[in-house]
Amino acid sequence: MAALENRPFVKMNGLGNEIVVLDLRDAPLAVPPEEARALARPDVLPFDQIMALYPPTTEGTSAFVRIINSDGSESGACGNGTRCIALYEAGRTGRDHLLFESVAGLLDCRIAGAAITADMGVPRFGWADIPLAGPVADTRAIELQAGPAEAPVLRAPSVVNVGNPHAIFWVEDIDAVDLAHYGPELEHHPIFPARANISLAQIVGADHIRLKVWERGVGLTRACGSAACATAVAAARLGLTGRRVTVTLPGGDLVIDWRVSDDHMLMTGPAEFEFDGQLSAAMLAGAA
Ligand SMILES: N[C@H](CCC[C@H](N)C(=O)O)C(=O)O
After folding, report:
1. Which residue of 3, 85, 109, 222 could cross-link 251, Cys pair, CB 3.0 to 4.6 Å?
2. What pLDDT score does 197 carry?
3. Where are the domains of the chain?
4. What pLDDT score was predicted for residue 286?
5. Which is nearest to 52 in space by CA: 109, 4, 2, 113?
6. Binding site for substrate: which residues?
7. If you take atom 5 of ligand 1, which residue's CA is the nearest one?
8. Ligand 1 centroid to 196 CA: how many Å?
9. pLDDT averaged per 10 residues, the chain (length 288)
10. 78 noted as active-site residue
């Protein structure tokens, strides 16, 4: 019998980033990667991330969350999924201020009407924090390129870790580059020993960025909250924008505020319930 058989699930999304919430607090068990991959099949329960909730280990927090990509790998951060679990837990408890733990630290979430704000913590810029394969003095622009060697299409990305690794390539027009083409080789480039989420970013103005993301362990998604945070701080570090920006993704807008007082990244955007149900043997069958 599949480990997850008969477990209830809630399908949600954050700006079209497809999220499955598995509340495992009553009877915790690890999500087998092969069962995650089986569920993610297009005709079963396609998702970008599973947000699996476990019993809290710190007083005052609602749950310890583990984040699983559709390829079964684990991530330290998921901005859109964090807003989803905040809305889920608010629905259960009636509270509008929720705290979660994750491998990357504490996630403080506040709900104000349709706007959910998650404190995504402090970004890290050291080469070993990203991580990169070797020392790099300035992570605002690293030596990496894609496309023909003599005429690279993408070059000199900024890199940052916001609980997960991100590389951001600055381009004139995000629609003029085929991210699905370059995403896989960049995600798996040996310079990124833990792989990386790959973004194309277009500066629209000092307070506005357009963004497309090739997610590690997933592929192209409608939105990626952690990439929006990573891009906002990388743009501010380069002086391309201020510290508060609207990030427009294919699925919609997020507002990122890189707070001056403590360098925390506050991400504000919506989340949505879609439907719920129970995982069946058939959904988990053929797991490989
Ligand atoms: N969708 C997520 C990002 C998942 C990150 C994951 N693809 C990884 O780092 O492995 C977000 O909204 O932040």
Report:
1. 222
2. 98
3. 8-120+271-284, 145-263
4. 76
5. 4
6. 17, 49, 69, 79-80, 164, 197, 215-216, 225-226
7. 78
8. 10
9. 96 98 97 97 97 97 98 98 98 98 97 97 98 98 97 98 98 98 98 98 98 98 98 98 98 98 98 98 83
10. yes
Please check whether the domain covering 8-120+271-284 is classified as CATH 3.10.310.10.
yes
84, 109, 224, 229: which one is catalytic? 224
CATH 3.40.50.720 fits 145-263, yes or no: no
Give the per-residue pLDDT at 287. 59
